[in-house]
Design goal:
Largest interface: A-B, 75 and 83 residues
CATH class of the largest domain in chain A: Mainly Alpha
Helix content of chain A: 40-55%
Largest sheet of chain A: none
Oligomer: heterodimer
Number of strands of chain B: 12
Distance between the termini of chain A: 66 Å
Number of helices of chain B: 20
CATH architecture of the largest domain in chain A: Orthogonal Bundle
Number of strands of chain A: 1
Shape of chain A: elongated
Largest sheet of chain B: 6 strands, antiparallel
Number of domains of chain A: 2
Strand content of chain A: under 5%
Strand content of chain B: 5-15%
Shape of chain B: globular
Order of helices and strands of chain A: EHHHHHHH
Chain lengths: 170, 670
């Protein structure tokens, strides 16, 4: 593998920059909004977790999509940041985005209207399954018959047979 | 060469149709020569498919860029492994691979059953070659891999190709599709035997005994394929996710879940002669879910990250599925009289009942995955508005179902067949319950208050102790009788009933995987711009960026970070996350650096540089317990292999109609 050292001028603008870096990189993420590299603040991330990433390349949310330059999430994060800067609360931001982009923008189906089926149906299937098991058990359960008296001779024969069989087992 | 390939698949198509007709007509008209001819046709299909596949592989390896498929999915600079893997890297090639695998399975089935099931085999061959014909229609007329590039009726050689998607240029990905396909295609075998059994009105379960190993091996391939996919996602996609609930991932999980349900419920039929209709339904469902999975992967009907190979072949799959499902349903309804249960449930507190709940949970999980995958399409069709169903939905729905499944994994082995008394249950459940409560209490006291996590850890302890006690009890009995040590006794115990104890090992593997999933609740992540020479912190780890190097080779350009890692001030060595830009496709990939430990992974991705080029962007994650996924898989693998080993002595289960004995005697007396 051919190895080229990257231009020092480009990545190391002298010792002064390196010294500054020691100070500047000790913070976690960005304090507010979204920075130029696409890194978001915790506030943006919190709202983003309620919105789907619609880039068609993943099933993550805007809050946890790891692609910093994602064609959908990057502008959406900036939009959220701008709305937060304008003083809107989380619900208002989500509602505004849904009003503009449709319910598809939500990470999970809303618990209302037809989308309620998305949540209810799996549990309904479990209930139907439980009912099916109940019906199966009822149908295939052995009926408790009134057991008639069995000739003791026959019973003894069975007991002898069982003992012989058991003695063969290790 | 391309003409040879085209001719081979065209001939294979004709021979497949002949094999179907010869087998079925031969069986109906009682013409043995036609039946034998149909069997030999199956071998011929395999030879023809092998020739066609060989042509494609040869073209990929030698870089025959006149062929459209080669130009699209290979290039000169790709390593030979990935040139070979390009066989299944695109739409046309992967469908050819499907066909080749099916022809191989069919040939093996015909060979291994050449002196068995003579009545059923023509139907089995008929089913398999019908499926083969469907895929050969796709190979020949819809997605032909032997098309050449042409301009004004002249064949063009483009000199070099686009290359395989860089995301697929990863060792696990080279074998992930074959493993999944071995699973998908393999379920055709038990399905074909089930249909053969239905058509020939066989009241017994010969098809189950014949296909048990097939099913188990196929299930293992499917499990391996899923796990390789998870490993690939974890290592390649750069965000540490091993499962993203993507529709194509879901497509592989669906037949796995129904297949797992089948592997359990089939024991009811073997031991008690019960659930015959249900087992046919399950094996058919599993097969059709395999076809459905291929349809999802290939049709693009739902948006997916796996958009490596898609096209407009969906309608063919839908037609095939519709005809296949309708035919199977008709056959099952028509043969219900031959599928009557031979026994009855003696008690609700029995192993039989636990299998019923096991099937319910597995199928509920399967249905929830299917529902979530299709809901966006259904919603759009019904309301005209698309609804997103993303990872949070699946996590909320699947976690309770998964925990119940975990509970049943521990309960099943503790309950006896036929009937358990409350007293025996109390004895069996005592120590596992004590362990579960103890583990949950200790974790709660130590600061873990995540409800599902406590449940999961507690239930995991429950299962591990219940399985452990089963081994210890059985081995102690052998040890005290034979005087061997406990480990030797455990091996002996397992050898005496490999299916049972191999199955327990599989349960242990699944528990380990659940423990790893639970660790997800405690993930940590941080994204930060760091100037070379600087340091970032994540949890107790400090990442000191020593340098940033760049370079290139024939295939890609690369940038690599050299990072010193320390934890609580202790030096842990270096890691080197890398970022690549592939020349041919102009696409970027991440080679993440992972510091693996059993308690947690430190996962570092070099995401790029800041717009001014002065800083590097690092995405760092701490994933607790994630390594147990891979450990769990190996345990599942070993357990399944143990299941495949024949018992030391053949076990025979008496299918006694216990309840009827008294009645029979009473009648005899009268």
């Amino acid at each position: 593998m051919q190895k080229h050292k990257i231009s020092r001028r480009k990545f190391f603008a002298g010792a002064s920059l390196a010294a500054a870096a020691l100070v500047s990189t000790s913070r976690a993420q960005v304090a507010k909004g979204v920075n130029e590299s696409g890194i978001m603040s915790e506030d943006v991330r919190r709202v983003g977790m309620r919105l789907a990433c619609l880039c068609r390349s993943c099933k993550n949310t805007v809050g946890d999509c790891a692609m910093l330059e994602c064609g959908y999430c990057a502008p959406m994060r900036k939009r959220i940041a701008a709305m937060q800067a304008a003083g809107q609360d989380d619900d208002a931001i989500v509602n505004a985005i849904v009003a503009q982009d449709g319910k598809e923008a939500l990470a999970v189906p809303p618990a209302q209207g037809f989308a309620l089926f998305a949540w209810a149906t799996p549990y309904l299937a479990v209930v139907i399954g439980l009912f099916a098991i109940w019906a199966f058990i009822r149908r295939f359960s052995a009926k408790r018959h009134a057991v008639p008296d069995v000739d003791p001779e026959i019973l003894d024969r069975y007991h002898d047979r069982i003992e012989k069989d058991m003695s063969k087992l290790d | 060469m391309e003409n040879l390939g085209s001719l081979a698949i065209l001939l294979a198509f004709c021979v497949a149709i002949y094999a179907t007709l010869a087998s079925l007509v031969g069986r109906v008209k009682r013409k043995p020569f036609l039946i034998v001819s149909g069997e030999r046709a199956v071998y011929s299909i395999w030879v023809l498919m092998t020739i066609a596949s060989g042509v494609l592989v040869y073209s990929l390896l030698t870089g025959d860029f006149r062929m459209s498929y080669v130009a699209e999915h290979s290039n000169r600079t790709m390593p030979i492994l990935y040139k070979f893997a390009a066989w299944w890297g695109g739409q046309e090639g992967s469908l050819l691979f499907w066909s080749w695998l099916l022809s191989t399975y069919a040939a093996v089935v015909v060979f291994t059953n050449r002196r068995k099931h003579r009545d059923m085999m023509p139907w089995v061959i008929g089913v398999m070659t019908t499926v083969q014909s469907f895929f050969l229609v796709l190979n020949n007329f819809i997605a032909n891999p032997f098309r050449v590039l042409a301009q004004e009726k002249l064949i063009v050689n483009v000199g070099d190709g686009n290359g395989l998607s860089p995301l697929l240029q990863y060792p696990a990905m080279a074998i992930h599709p074959p493993m999944l396909y071995l699973g998908y295609v393999g379920f055709c075998v038990p399905f074909a035997f089930a249909i053969g059994s239905l058509i020939t009105r066989q009241p017994g379960d010969a098809w189950i005994h014949t296909t048990r190993r097939w099913t188990l091996v196929t299930w293992l391939f499917q499990s391996t394929g899923i796990m390789l996919g998870a490993a690939w996602a974890y290592h390649v996609l750069g965000w540490g996710g091993y499962w993203g609930w993507d529709p194509v991932e879901n497509a592989s999980l669906l037949p796995w879940l129904s297949g797992t349900a089948f592997l359990h419920s089939v024991m009811m039929q073997e031991k008690k002669g019960m659930m015959k209709v249900w087992n046919i339904v399950l094996v058919s469902t599993t097969f059709f879910l395999c076809i459905f999975g291929t349809f999802l992967t290939r049709s693009g009907v739902v948006s997916s990250v796996h958009a490596f190979a898609q096209g407009s072949i969906g309608k063919f799959f839908v037609t095939f599925l519709a005809i296949g499902i309708a035919g199977t349903v008709y056959l099952i309804l028509n043969r219900l009289d031959f599928l009557k249960s031979e026994a009855q449930l003696e008690s609700v507190l029995s192993r039989e009942s636990s299998f019923l709940f096991n099937n319910l949970v597995l199928l509920a999980s399967c249905f929830a995955v299917l529902w979530g995958t299709l809901f966006p399409v259904i919603s759009e069709a019904v309301t005209g508005e698309k609804i997103s169903v993303d990872a949070p939905f699946y996590n909320r729905v699947q976690v309770p179902i998964g925990l119940f499944m975990l509970f049943l994994t521990g309960v099943g082995p503790l309950i006896a067949w036929r009937r358990s008394s409350f007293e025996s249950l109390r004895k069996s459940f005592l120590w596992p319950t004590v362990a579960a409560v103890g583990v949950a209490a200790v974790l709660a006291v130590s600061g873990i208050h995540h409800f599902y996590a406590l449940m999961s850890f507690g239930l995991s302890a429950f299962v591990l102790i219940s399985v452990g006690l089963e081994f210890v009890k059985g081995a102690s009995a052998i040890s005290s009788k034979s005087g061997t040590n406990i480990l030797t006794a455990m091996v002996e115990l397992t050898h005496r009933n490999t299916r049972r104890y191999g199955g327990y090992l599989v349960h242990v593997g699944i528990v380990l995987i659940f423990i790893a999933f639970t660790g997800k609740a405690f993930d940590k992540d941080a994204v930060q711009e760091v100037t070379p020479g600087g340091t970032m912190q994540i949890g107790r780890y400090a990442l000191h960026v020593v340098s940033f190097d760049q370079g290139q080779n024939e295939n890609y350009q690369w940038g690599k970070l050299n990072i010193d890692v320390s934890k609580d001030g202790d030096d842990l060595g270096k890691i080197e996350p890398e970022h690549r830009l592939y020349r041919a496709s102009k696409s970027a990939t991440s080679e993440v650096a992972i510091r693996r430990r059993l308690n947690e992974d430190l996962y570092v991705n070099f995401a790029g540089t800041s717009p001014d080029g002065q800083k590097v962007i690092i995405q760092a994650y701490v994933f607790p317990l994630v390594t147990w996924i891979w450990v769990g898989y190996w345990v599942v693998l070993i357990g399944t292999l143990v299941c495949l080993v024949p018992n030391k002595q053949k076990l025979i289960w008496a299918r006694t109609e216990v309840v009827g004995i008294a009645d029979k005697h009473a009648k005899a007396q009268n």
